Amino acid sequence: MISTSRGLLGLSPVAVFxxxxxxxxxxxxxxxxxxxxxxLVVASMWAVAICRDGNLSRxxxxxxxxxxxxxxxxxxxxxxxxxxxxALAKDIGAIDATVNFTLRFFPPQFIVPALFVASCFIxxxxxxxxxxxxxxxxxxxxxxxMAGAPVPFYVxxxxxxxxxxxxxxxxxxxxxxxxxxxxxxxADKFKANLWIALPAALVTLAVYLVMxxxxxxxxxxxxxxxxxxxxxxxxxxxxxSGVNVTIVLTLGIATALVLGLIYGGDIISLxxxxxxxxxxxxxxxxVTLLAAGMLGLIKAAGGIQYLxxxxxxxxxxxxxxxxxxxxLVGMVxxxxxxxxxxxxxxxxxxxxxxxxxxVDPRKSASLxxxxxxxxxxxxxxxxxxxxxxxxxxxxxxAPFAYLYYPWALALTVxxxxxxLFPRRLHRVG
Length: 429
Known about the structure:
By secondary structure, the protein is mainly α. The protein contains 20 helices and no strands. It has helices at residues 4-28, 36-50, 56-67, 70-92, 94-105, 111-126, 129-147, 151-168, 173-182, 186-212, 230-240, 245-262, 267-279, 282-300, 303-311, 317-336, 339-357, 361-378, 383-392, 404-418. Helix 3 (56-67) packs across helix 14 and helix 6 (111-126) packs antiparallel against helix 7. The longest helix is centred in the middle third of the chain and has 27 residues, at 186-212. 55% of the residues are buried.
């Protein structure tokens, strides 16, 4: 049993980070002025200071082990490859060619809705929001530039669609973790989850259609070489086929290199573009390592355990049990910045709550997956947002004002708890 004073102290690094980054940025009205990395450095130093697990060397070791976790380093590899591919594709003209083709195919008023649907489809097919962000963010940035629209808005469209698929896909880590922890079949969870995610996606799509009605005519430049779209086609086809994201990016880089050489580029210049792309990921990698280390110390200090302890002590009734599961995974996701880890962390407790109060396993799995995706999409220090904003060259919090899908999903989750739908999953009315 963790005391309130110890639990709140364990969670305090999150408060320090939020105060330094979000509150200060809101007060000064500029999310570009306060560097995310500095906010995390200060919060991490505070986490080291308040952790009671051994001497300073031991605390730094805990921080380093969490930052050097295999899943974190795997994400770093993705960032490196994504940076190299994005810069190389831009250098040879692949992005311009792909955007040119897209704008010729879709009327201007349907560009944003089409981008959202494409993000939903790709993420549903490949089961990873990160892969979707890598594939579509550079295109979204170019489309925003040609349409004279805010880049954060187009980035937010991609992020929303990416999390739609992450929530529902059969091969998503979050789906696997949610169904295994709750003991239900993936297909059954998909059917139940669709009642929550699909209405949110349709509402979001309707908003984009209304917003796009006044989109001005876009002047499409001539002369783009259609063959230069091949790197993106290779990436999309390989991703939809279920190929590992690191292999997908490697294939894209290889294709772009070959095309660059064919159309007059020299290998040193192409490598230079790749190097610049990798360098551009430097801050993102540092932020990822700092966040992971800080959250490891929060866990060691008892912050996560205290959070679980408090939230599970006030459960009552069917609706209360579902609300507790939703808040539980959301709060833990806020502290871990990883939706899969959040589901795994609270999965066992959520199952106990579900069994005690008669919550259908399909509903509890849906709540775990949906609520973790809501929080992961909204936090500026989540891997998907960091990657998307890094590729777009904008502040991590810049897309927040345009993130319509996660708010719509949060609303449908709340309605599903209040009105107990899908009705067939509940033993009582």
